[in-house]
Amino acid sequence: SDVWWSFLVGEKKERIHAHKLFLIASSEYFYAMFNGNFKESSESEIVLDDIEPKIFLEILRFVYCGKIDLTFQNIHEIYIHSRKYMLMELLAMASNFLEKSIEPENVLKIFTQNRFYGFQFVDEKCLRLIRTNPLFYFNHEDFSLIDRESLCLILSSKKINCTDDQLMGALDIWEKGHEEENVDELKAIVKNSKRSYDCYKLRLFGPSSGSEPNDFGFSIVSETNVNLYGIGVFLKSTAKVITIEMKIFQNDLEIGCDLFEYENDNFVTVDVANLFFEEIILKPHHRYKIVLNITPAVEPFTIQNPKIHHDRIKMSIANVIYGRCDSTYCAIAHMHCREQKISSKAIG
After folding, report:
1. Residue 345 domain-assigned?
2. Helix (H) or strand (E) segment spanning residue 340
3. Residue 248: enclosing H or E segment and its boundaries?
4. Are residues 134 and 183 in the same domain?
5. Which intervals hold domain BTB (predicted)?
6. What is the DSSP track for 6-64?
7. CB neighbours of 156 closer than 8 A, spacing ≥ 6?
8. Which residues, other chains included, contact 253 with Cβ-Cβ below 8 Å and sequence gap of 6+?
9. Beta bridge partners of residue 118, listed in sequence order
10. Is 244 helix (H, G, I), strand (E, B) or coil?
11. CA distance linking residue 93 with residue 91, whole number of Å
């Protein structure tokens, strides 16, 4: 009739009816199909064998009501057919769904899926999360499943909170799941790219000293969460490889630990080893302590009674909060971190 179109949808050619007026008003594709020289314009039944009935019904629901139930299970097909049928508003809703769905636990999956969709803002949001806390994602079960192009985008990042050795370690993890891939080009990207850290150095100031370092005790006294990604540690040693065991405590409860093998190529002067780990969130008004165990023993080089200078982050640095009133001799040169403002209601 002039009012209805009858569609035979999917492999089983399920019959679904729809108003011509709604389809023509919503889609240039259907407008051209009905008013153009296509054979469908004169037929009473139109075969759509490249779409499942439940997907087509969801699209019709959008055409009639402006609503659609988007899920990770149907987003791929909805996206394909919203492009085919030139439903630009639905296409925008699909892209918005992807962006709002990005969370730390699924970012690698969405980032990989976006090689198909090609949404630049989705890539930017995913990469921002990955660059900020890369070691979390390198150790995630989904990391070995990402495709080569996605991995290349990560390795090519101009800013990322890890060392080149840790990037190489991530590449080794990925290679184990893709033994058929030649990774020489990817290794060259890591070696030849110039990059910086996606955070800033919160430097510790104070007179230098040759005393043995104490555990680094501090608390944040400003109303600011601090996301900690790494630390810089003073080292002076003739050893080629230095093992550094690090533990971080919050109110005497261990909240982070890591073991680093630092390749030392500076045997004469004091060096600073940049040690990156998975993000640790430091909260205001909690006591923290960073404990370092370095082997073989290094020649002492510390900062006495360290202080920081920052517009927003304020710290109390003193061993007195751990029951000791002696001077603080700290082997930590700086903290790789980023501040995150929070409301007073969120502090706890």
Report:
1. no
2. strand 332-341
3. strand 241-250
4. yes
5. 1-72
6. EEEETTTTEEEEEEHHHHHHH-HHHHHHHHSS-GGGG-SEEEETTS-HHHHHHHHHHHH
7. 189, 193
8. none
9. none
10. strand
11. 5
Contact by Cβ (8 Å): 146, 106: no
User: CA-to-CA distance for 310 and 308, rounded, in angstroms?
Assistant: 6
Cα gap 66→168, rounded to integer Å: 48
Query: Of 167, 192, 217, at which residue does a domain stop?
Result: 192
Residue-level pLDDT at 42: 61
How far apart are alpha carbons 48 and 163 in whole angstroms? 52
* CATH number where 316 lies: 2.60.120.820
Q: Which domain holds residue 179?
A: 106-192
Q: Answer whether 122's CB lies under 8 Å from 98's CB.
A: yes
For 75-102, the pLDDT digits (tens) are: 889 999 999 999 999 989 988 888 888 9
CATH number, position 64: 3.30.710.10
Residue type, 54: K
b/e 312-326 (16+ beta carbons within 10 angstroms → b) = ebebebbbeeeeeee
Q: Work out whether the CA dihedral 30, 34, 38, 44 comes out positive or negative.
A: positive
Residues 204 and 276 occupy one common structural domain = yes
**Domain end among 158, 192, 226:** 192
Cα distance between the two ends of the chain: 67
Cα separation, 96 vs 244, in Å, equals: 44
- In sequence order, the 6+-apart residues with CB closer than 8 A to the CB of 251 are 286, 287
| Tokens found for residue 70 | 């988007």
Is residue 162 domain-shared with residue 185, that is, in the same domain? yes
Q: How confident is the model at residue 34 (pLDDT cuts 50, 70, 90)?
A: confident
pLDDT at 16 over 80: yes
Q: Which helix (H) or strand (E) holds 154?
A: helix 148-155
Total domain count for the chain? 3
